[in-house]
Amino acid sequence: MYLRKMFQDNTPLAERMRPKLLGELLGQEHLVGEGSVLRQAIHSGIIPSMILWGPPGTGKTTIANIIANEVKSPFKTLSAVSSGVKDVREVINKAGKGSKVILFIDEIHRFNKSQQDALLSAVEKGIITLIGATTENPSFEVNSALLSRCQVYILKPLLEEHLKTLLDKCLREDYDLKDRKITIKEYKALFSISGGDARKLINLLELVTDSQSNGEVIITDEMVVNVAQQRVAVYDKSGEQHYDIISALIKSLRGSDPNAALYYLARMIEGGEDVKFIARRMLILASEDIGNANPTALVMANACFQAVNVIGYPEAQLILSQCAIYLAGSPKSNSATTGIGNALNIVRETGDLPVPLHLRNAPTKLMKEEGYGKGYKYSHSFPGNFAEQEFLPDLISGTKFFEPGDNPREEEMRKQLRKLWKDKYGY
């Protein structure tokens, strides 16, 4: 086992490598790159209260620390897992007696309503600048009153090029690694096991390097897998496996394996996972991976979400189990997911294309004179309740966003669309 020099501390590698300046941060260029809104706010010294929403290990805590360093403000940190209203009020009371404090709350989605309400007045009066970090959609988990007082910034998953740069930086700059002969021959296992989480990636690198002797170390996929398997942890709803297990559950449901789905569901239930978290993820899957192959899946998942909010544990496990089995056994289609994805891509590429005149409303005489609404065909006035006409802007006429999936329901949908739009969209 490689031993650190006696004069070096035992601070984890991930903490030692945490960026302290904007220029050191990898990824999130849309937030902190040149000319970005957050960078401009930092340079101006006027920091709004904000919610940083993104996957684990993408830089939420790091950005909060960088903001505090850059604007030279007092910085207080609370974890929603271990802190309560008393802790929040203590920070607010101290902030009210001196300079404005930046309060960083990790996993703010785990604060209940009363805990979040305790922040409202201080945020509104400017006593504190709140920076909350969450991996969950803040629209679901943050009170609307508090959310309206904060800017929401979305962090994107880190790309492999960012992760590779980070690993190389660790080997090149960290005092514990740079003098050792360490070569990363293969990256695949490091990337796949860490799941794009920078903190988890660095922890894994430290685990692998610490498991080797002082001699030359050549890191391979096999080595990484072997070391990682020796350190499998029990389920921790506030730790990394929280995300690993929900990922395994969703992939099992998507893969139509009810047995695996029940196993991972049981792992989460036994670990005391938030019942709403599980139900919400299944609700998303009902549209993302089943969609119109079985529209009832969305109804079922929504009923499950509403029911578990009323019932709670332990009986909620029965409702979650029923829903999971139903979703796993349903036919699958991601046509709704790919359809809206295709449409969003075109919107981003082409911008605000003009709506065809015949589709526009004409509530005024001037609009009618300009041709608004002229030539529009009211579908129900034609045989079969259909009249062929152009609905898309001219520039993207004929663009097909939706492709029916390979399942009985959507095959019927395809037949209907083929009757109507075979020549235009090729159904």
Describe it for me?
The chain has a 5-stranded parallel sheet, with helices on both faces. It has a two-stranded parallel sheet with strand order 6-7. The chain is of the alpha/beta class and 427 residues long. The protein has helices at 13-16, 29-32, 37-44, 60-71, 85-95, 113-125, 138-141, 144-147, 160-173, 188-194, 198-210, 221-229, 241-254, 258-270, 275-290, 296-311, 316-329, 335-350, 365-369, 408-425, and strands at 50-53, 75-79, 101-106, 128-134, 151-154, 182-184, 217-219. 29% of the residues are buried. The protein folds into 4 domains: 27-154, Rossmann fold (3-Layer(aba) Sandwich); 160-229, Orthogonal Bundle (Helicase, Ruva Protein, domain 3), CATH 1.10.8; 241-329, Zinc Finger, Delta Prime, domain 3 (Up-down Bundle), CATH 1.20.272.10; 355-425, no CATH class. 50% of the residues lie in helices and 7% in strands. The chain contains 20 helices and 7 strands. Helix 6 links the parallel strand 3 (101-106) and strand 4.
In short:
The protein is of the alpha/beta class and 427 residues long. Helices cover 50% and strands 7% of the residues.
- Can you give the helix content as a percent range? 40-55%
CATH level 4 superfamily of the largest domain: P-loop containing nucleotide triphosphate hydrolases
CATH architecture of the largest domain: 3-Layer(aba) Sandwich
If you consult CATH, what is the topology of the largest domain? Rossmann fold
Mean pLDDT comes to 87
> What is the CATH class of the largest domain?
Alpha Beta
Low-confidence stretches: 1-7
Largest sheet: 5 strands, parallel
Shape: globular
Beta fraction = 5-15%
By secondary-structure content and strand pairing, the structural class works out as alpha/beta
Number of strands: 7
Strand order of the largest sheet: 2-3-4-1-5
Number of domains: 4
Please tally the helical runs, counting DSSP H or I stretches of 4 or more residues.
20
